[in-house]
Amino acid sequence: MAFYSDNWVVYVALIYLAINKLLQYTISHHKQWKSKLPFPNVRVSRQRFLEKRHEIRKLQIENRLISAQDNYAQWTKNNRKLTKLEKELSSIKEELTKAVAKNDKLLGTLKLVVLTLPFLALKLLKGKHIVYHLPKSDVFPQLMSGVWTKGWLYLGLAPLQMLRGRSMSAVSITEVGVSLGIWLWALQRVVDTIEFLIKQLFLESAVTRPEPKVQEVHEINSDKIELD
Amino acid sequence: MDLSIEPNLHSLITSSTHKWIFVGGKGGVGKTTSSCSIAIQMALAQPQKQYLLISTDPAHNLSDAFGEKFGKDARKVTGMNNLSCMEIDPSAALKDMNDMAVSRSNANGGSGESDGLSNLLQGGGLAELTGSIPGIDEALSFMEVMKHIRNQEKGEGESYDTVIFDTAPTGHTLRFLQLPNTLSKLLEKFGEITGNFGPMLNSLAGTGNIDITGKLNQLKENVELIKSQFTNPDLTTFVCVCISEFLSLYETERLIQELISYDMDVNSIIVNQLLFAEHDLEHNCKRCQARWKMQKKYLDQIDELYEDFHVIKMPLCAGEIRGLDNLRKFSKFLDKEYDPSKDGEVIYELEEKN
Fold first, then answer.
1. Mutate: best of B250, B259, B298, partner A, most A CBs <10 A
2. Nearest CA in chain A to B306
3. pLDDT class for B113, splitting at 50, 70, 90?
4. If you write DSSP's letter for every residue of B90-106 in order, what string do you get?
5. What are the domain boundaries of chain A?
6. Model pLDDT for residues B271-329, shown as the tens digit of each residue
7. pLDDT the model gives residue B197
8. What fold, for A1-126?
9. How many domains does chain B have?
10. Nearest beta carbon to residue A69 from set B246, B304, B305
11. Membrane-spanning residues where (chain A) (predicted)?
């Protein structure tokens, strides 16, 4: 089985595949990672959000410490400030949500441009690129390889070839190559299957056998009827 | 030019632009006395104008305040040419209207002629909605009140220049002012739903049934029309009434904040039932002094909190302020602030008349 190890197409495809799998495995951490990315719009909004929240907590504590009846004016002023701050906080929160959504969209586009589209382009443009050729004779029986490459005529001509004293192997059999598209598909299937097996065998908790239900049997043992 | 805020309602009493004046506050703080006093003072200050005082409180007491019976039709106050009163219960009126709409709809097989609010209620169909949309109940009630005022004007043949509302102490009286926003959101959602499931909804509703979107649009337009008047500070103002106690002040603050959120003009607070004990040497008692001390504490807080408000300090009288004469005497302190050292006698004069 010949493998063209100097083929850059295969290496690039493998890298894309590995990155995709990595992103798939780490999907639960993406939100956390994204929050740590230094987007200026999110950073500013988050800073303001934290400051406002701190201010609100400070005021709430202050208001809890003073007597509303003895310091009514102060208490009310604090309440007014609190209402104002809470409104501001909710608008910052909205701003933050919008900024995060915008950044998510940006990252999505980035992923599309850097990963998905090039990978798709690679598959489309280089999909028929032969990764390796299947060996001519030793993968399948001679007869089968002959039918595969020459068609059913090979089978029909086989007795004639034998009568003419020619060996069956003398017939030239065309080389069968495995294209990048097929190879990637097969590779992904293998990885997915291994992934599934590992998950089922080691990571998923065992399902307990359900207890068989004991049905109550109502039998009529007596034909007496009680009267009121 | 003196920019300090006067501690009286002179500017409101002599105002030539105000068409709607709301008087509100929690129960038992003297709302009715205050609204009667404002109405009387306005009527006295501008005799060429016609005034209407409406109680929308189900527990009506305008009749008790003036000592004569008023009903749901406007009637002039005896002794005053330009002040009329009426007592209506908007929610009860709305219920009557709804019941009538239902019966008319049943009688005409759903194709009866209808107009205005009854059309809006359409066979009582919208009654289901009134409980679920915040402010819609108040809006429908208020529209019923406005319609009633219009009918009165038609019947009496004269129009009212200013209407003074003695509102119910339930709060949320003017909650309907935020209704256009609520309805806009609701209609937007409705648009989405009817866009997706329109034919299905129509088949469920049946032919000739409720055109909810259309009705809500109509309601929104009506409320927006009222809102444009009520949020104009030249036309409308709200006078808060309270007493100098913690809970009353707390509720007043909440009311003011709520009104501000509706973009309503609110710049006057009447503080009722003040004892002014240090000037009341003749009938002074320890309890009055202690209570006055507490009231003064809250008055200071009011002054600090509402610097840009007209804060009117009204005395606690020895008896109930009932009858036109007593109300006239008491109400003059709204126009010119009460001076305990000079005006103290009025407190006991009122008692003698009761």
1. B250
2. A73
3. very low
4. HHHHHHHHHHHHHHHHH
5. 1-126, 127-205
6. 999 999 888 777 778 888 999 999 999 999 999 999 999 999 999 998 889 999 999 99
7. 67
8. Helix Hairpins (1.10.287)
9. 1
10. B246
11. 6-27
